[in-house]
Amino acid sequence: MPATSMGHCLTTLPSLRDALEVVSGKWKLLILVALATGHQRFRDIERSIPGISSKVLAKELKDLEQHQLIRRTVQEGPPVLVTYEVLPYADSLDPVIFALRDWGKNHRKKIMGPAVEA
Amino acid sequence: MPATSMGHCLTTLPSLRDALEVVSGKWKLLILVALATGHQRFRDIERSIPGISSKVLAKELKDLEQHQLIRRTVQEGPPVLVTYEVLPYADSLDPVIFALRDWGKNHRKKIMGPAVEA
DNA sequence: TATCTTTGCTTACTAAAAGTGAGCAGCTAC
DNA sequence: GTAGCTGCTCACTTTTAGTAAGCAAAGATA
Question: Which residues form the signal peptide (chains A, B) (predicted)?
């Protein structure tokens, strides 16, 4: 173990990889948060995440569905209505999301901080 | 707020984005863990992360250095010796790494679990 | 002395992924 | 009727990732 406070044990890497396969990438966690904050419709999600495109959103939603983190529901119409929602299992990602959010908040302060003071 | 337990406030998204810009992608966190577990040399890191290529490793190391998470040190030789180490600031990512690791561990169980049981 | 290996990369090349802009069928609103 | 919204998809370009090879400097092996 090196002189850092980390002390990750060697079994960290495989688990981390497993997680990263599901969750890494710019969009997946953002989409989950969007869903969790009440955006259930395709266009709605799209608008709530600036920068994402229909194409990527469609693909990411499919991935998330395959990983059992969200559910797609079609209410036959007319008009046909498609709804996305986070499944309970997705809540297990909360610690990840919170940790990232907190780190991001702090990191921004670290980077912008000095220039912004006084 | 929807009927999930998440209840992310609206300011989650920007912070999450900030974090994801620094940390998302398949390799960065794995590299940090590799460094933290005692792999300090380029080849050493490369070998400790199966699947990564020299090219990507070189690029990721540059990124991490720019983000002030690691330091590259050249000890003039001969032989010239290049060493990478995590900076103390990188420890602030521990909660993220732990959360992901734990989730990954659990997710694997969820996916493999049923098939593996007795 | 020759050659083989290791180190820390870089360079071409290819494959995959992400981003861009348009569009489309089905419906509603005016 | 024509303009708009919805949930996408398609064709295309750009960016990123991955693959294989190689290279200079040094050390070890023979």
Answer: none
Q: How far is B53 from chain A (nearest CA, A)?
A: 16
Give whole-number Cα distances, A95 to A31, B63, B100, in Å: 16, 25, 8
Would you write out chain B's pLDDT as a tens digit for each of its 118 residues?
A: 333 445 556 678 899 999 999 998 999 999 999 999 999 999 999 999 999 999 999 999 999 999 999 999 999 877 889 999 999 999 999 999 999 999 999 999 888 766 654 4
User: What is the per-residue pLDDT for A23?
Assistant: 92
Which band of pLDDT confidence, cut at 50, 70 and 90, is reported for residue A115? low
- Write the CA distances from A25 to A21, A117, B86, integer angstroms: 9, 33, 23
Domain borders along chain A are: 14-116
CB atoms within 10 A of CB A5: 10
CATH topology of domain B22-116: Arc Repressor Mutant, subunit A (1.10.10)
For the domain made up of A14-116, the CATH class stated in words is mainly alpha
Give the pLDDT score at A67.
92
Neighbour tally for A24: CB within 10 Å: 20
